[in-house]
């Protein structure tokens, strides 16, 4: 299931710069810049309070695909928030699911 992530931010109101690199203009067709922004998102997901390594961000057919499994709905929202910040102005398709962590309601039959 694909969940497009809406983007609001600097790219919508004027010239934007690459995240973490002031003064470098964002060019929509520049694959190097997109790769840089995706890598920066991956670093933020792993390094910040989330410590989330179960989500992958990849460039696919001119857009970004976020895929993976997270432990909670709050974690999913945090991942999508970071994606909006880092990838503003790009098309992002999110397929991030929440892991089922409830107790089974019946015994497993073997």
In words, what does this structure look like?
This protein is an alpha+beta fold and 110 residues long. 32% of the residues lie in helices and 27% in strands. The chain has three helices and six strands. It has helices at 10-13, 31-47, 73-86, and strands at 3-4, 17-18, 21-25, 55-60, 63-70, 92-98. The strands form two sheets. Strands 1-6-5-4 form a four-stranded mixed beta sheet. Strands 2-3 form a two-stranded antiparallel sheet. Strand 5 (63-70), helix 3 and strand 6 form a beta-alpha-beta unit. Helix 2 packs antiparallel against helix 3. The longest helix is centred in the middle third of the chain and has 17 residues, at 31-47. The protein is elongated and about 50 Å long.
Number of strands: 6
Poorly predicted ranges? 6-29
Largest sheet: 4 strands, mixed
* Discrete helix count: 3
Shape type: elongated
- Strand order in the largest sheet: 1-6-5-4
Average residue-wise pLDDT: 74
Strand fraction equals 25-35%
Quaternary structure annotation = single chain
Alpha-carbon Rg, integer: 16 Å
Q: In which range does the helix fraction lie?
A: 25-40%
Sheet/helix structural class: alpha+beta
Task: Encode the helix/strand succession as letters.
Answer: EHEEHEEHE
